[in-house]
Each structure stands twice: as C-alpha cells, then as structure tokens.
Specification:
179 residues; alpha+beta; six-stranded mixed beta sheet; 6 helices; 6 strands; membrane; transmembrane helix
C-alpha cells in the first residue's frame, strides 16, 4: 500500500483541473503572466505527480490476486465531482477570485476526499484513460478498482496492487502503455 505522504499527493493531484481553469481565466484576461505561469506550473507538476504515483505503484507495490465476485461501474462519480467544483469558475473574472478563498475551498475538498477514502475522485485518472469499478470479493469486501480496461467479466482481473485500504489498481492492462 502507498504510505500517507503518497496518498496525500494522490489526493492533491485531483485539484489540477481547478488550477488549469484558474490559469485559463488568467490567460483570457491577460491578467498577470507571473501568476498565470505559477498556476499553470503547479497544475503541470500535479499532472506529473499523478503519473509518477501510478507508475510507481505498478512497479513497486506487491502484486495481489483479488477474487472478484461482482463488478459495478463507478465512473459517474468523477463527472459529477468535476462539474460541481468547476462550474463556479465559468462566471467569475480573475479579479473576483480571492486566492485565500480558493485555497480554503481546495483544502476543504481535500479533507472531504481524504476522510471519506474517495481517492478515486480524481479527474486526471479519467483523462489518462482509467475507469473506476466497485468490485466485491468472495469475502464480501468492497474495493474500488482502477483499470484501463472495460470490464464485463469478473475473471478478467488477475493482478492488482493495493493503493489504499479500499482501492486497487489493475496492473494487467492489455494494451496499457506505461502511463
């Protein structure tokens, strides 16, 4: 499993769409090139960090066999979350955005994601082609499975790594290039 620092980093990467949206607003209004550069640089750093964490997990975490009994898609949660946290930006000019309030809101989202084990609410993973499935094992334990495959058969998952207490990553992705 990933340690707490890496879990914090993974949750943090889910905020790159907020930063990209803010950078886009700054760019449209030709506000501050320095502020734009900092925000876009931070967003790019978070994207890189997300890729790094996924690749690290695939290569370094212990491979486990997960006896899956049922599969249910969970992709829709990401879309709802993305709309909910980006919609307010569509009507705001950059001078109306208070960075302190933005940081507070992002911190609040971070705490909610962290405390509810909702690490999968990460739009970057969707952008990189990952799908989310709620799976139940033969022991009646539910996990969130992250994979690049469209799943229809419970026996198609043979190798996973455990990212968190309730999240596993399929590492046997056919056609999966290293992200």
């Amino acid at each position: 499993m990933l340690n707490k620092f890496v879990k914090v980093a993974l949750v943090s990467t889910s905020f790159s769409p907020i930063l990209l949206t803010y950078a886009f607003i700054l760019w449209l209004e030709e506000d501050s090139i320095l502020k734009f550069s900092i925000v876009i640089g931070l967003a790019a750093l978070l994207v890189f960090l997300c890729l790094l964490i996924i690749n690290f997990a695939k290569k370094k975490l212990e491979i486990i066999n997960l006896p899956i009994q049922s599969i249910k898609t969970a992709d829709g949660e990401v879309v709802g979350f993305l709309v909910a946290y980006l919609l307010p930006f569509t009507t705001i000019a950059s001078e109306q955005i208070n960075e302190s309030i933005l940081i507070f809101i992002m911190s609040l989202f971070f705490l909610i994601i962290w405390s509810t084990n909702s690490y999968h609410i990460n739009p970057l993973l969707s952008v990189f082609g990952y799908h989310f499935y709620e799976v139940n094992t033969s022991n009646n334990i539910s996990f969130l499975l992250i994979t690049k495959r469209d799943l229809r058969d419970t026996t198609s998952i043979t190798s996973t790594v455990q990212l968190t207490e309730y999240m596993v990553l399929d590492i046997n992705n056919k056609g999966d290039k290293n992200v």
